[in-house]
Amino acid sequence: MFPMLKVVEYYTPQKVVFGVNAVDNLERYIKDMGITGKGVIVTDPVIVQTGSAERVSQALKKEGFEVVIFDQAKPEPDDIVCDQAAEFARKEKGDFVIGLGGGSSIDIAKVVAQLLVLPGKTADYLVTTSFPKKGAPIIAIPTTSGTGTECTMYSVITFAKDGIKGFFATPYILPDLALVDPTLTVSMPPKVTASTGADALAHAIETMMAKQENPLTDAIALKAIEFIAEALPVAVYEGNNLEARVKMAYASMMAGMAFNDPGIVEGHALAHTLGSVYHIPHGVGCAIALPYVMEYNMGHCMEKLARIAVALGQNTAGMSVREAAQAAVYAVKQLLEDVGLPTTWAPFGKKEDIPKLADMMVNCSWITAFYGWCKRTMTKEAAVELLNRSYEGRLGEKLY
């Protein structure tokens, strides 16, 4: 049961535009919002090679906008690359910032927009997870279907000095305009499609297990889960299937909207731990963690998991609530395996690392921050058990 007496706050972009070929009318949407001046596109070399950066540039230039491109964004960005992009934007005297690409490019763009109007470097603000005021306008244009960062107030940035994943969490970095055009995702290779899709699935499911879930976020998250179950395998193995790409783009966006208020739980804590130590891509880390964290939350999220089973396409007729909930766990594991993702971290690390990883899960503030959204209290013993099970690929025993 959701907390009926809780006051909830919903943060969404000022404007969201979704549609096939919508990016070709970008200049109109920007003008409608009163945004003017010089645009700085933050993207990566791959997006430049696909022609998407040029497509965005041309959409703006035909209406007289001046545009420059920073094309050195990288996966799992750190504060150094954010500072490089911000320095570029400052030298170019940009007026607004466009994040074009996967979650990494958009997360960098969110920081760049702040540093266009604020002094200093990324690390000066990352230690506090926030900024003192709103920065330059931000336009987010995703080319993947995973993070949903185009609709969130979060930006995941790694501290270069120690490799620990940190994050910004403030409405100041919520994009002013989110433009989601599924045609930009068609060029995504299968592995990226799979891993980003796993991230979206984790967002939707973890939102429903968070202690601050509510009817609106549950509804959005359930629909996202349904779309992912239907479309992710098709998008992975038939990348030019536009219907599948549309469903995945919707799912990613909706899952991002869903977790903005309730947050995400132990799955992302485990994924960030594995990502910080082994540099596992974020979506892969989420895939590894998700089934075990669903089972970990079984005792107090049973009815939610039973509803998730139905959204995943499971026939739960005649099942008890517990059986349906367990069916959801196995269905998620099977879906992830079907798209070629690992569901154990054994290929990336050693079992002997578990004490060190467990210590990080309960003592590193950048990991324990997730537990503020959780219903269960994370203990060292629970962390060790989760790490053991997710290393061994072991499901089906009580964790509660």
Kindly describe this structure:
The chain is α/β, with parallel strands linked by helices and 400 residues long. 50% of the residues lie in helices and 10% in strands. It has two domains: 15-185, Rossmann fold; 190-392, Dehydroquinate synthase-like, alpha domain, CATH 1.20.1090. The protein is built from 16 helices and eight strands. The strands form two sheets. Strands 1-8-5-4-2-3 form a six-stranded parallel sheet, sandwiched between helices. Strands 6-7 form a two-stranded antiparallel sheet. The longest helix has 23 residues, at 215-237. It is globular and about 60 Å long.
Feature tags:
single chain, 400 residues, alpha/beta, Rossmann fold, Dehydroquinate synthase-like, alpha domain, 2 domains, two-stranded antiparallel sheet, 16 helices, 10% strand, globular
Query: Helices and strands, in N-to-C order?
Result: EHEHHEHEHHEEEEHHHHHHHHHH
**Envelope shape:** globular
Please compute the radius of gyration using only Cα atoms: 20 Å
According to CATH, the homologous superfamily of the largest domain is Dehydroquinate synthase-like - alpha domain
Strand content: 5-15%
Q: What name is given to the CATH topology of the largest domain? A: Dehydroquinate synthase-like, alpha domain
| Structural class designation | alpha/beta
The major β-sheet equals:
6 strands, parallel
Mean of the pLDDT scores? 95
What's the oligomerization state?
Answer: single chain
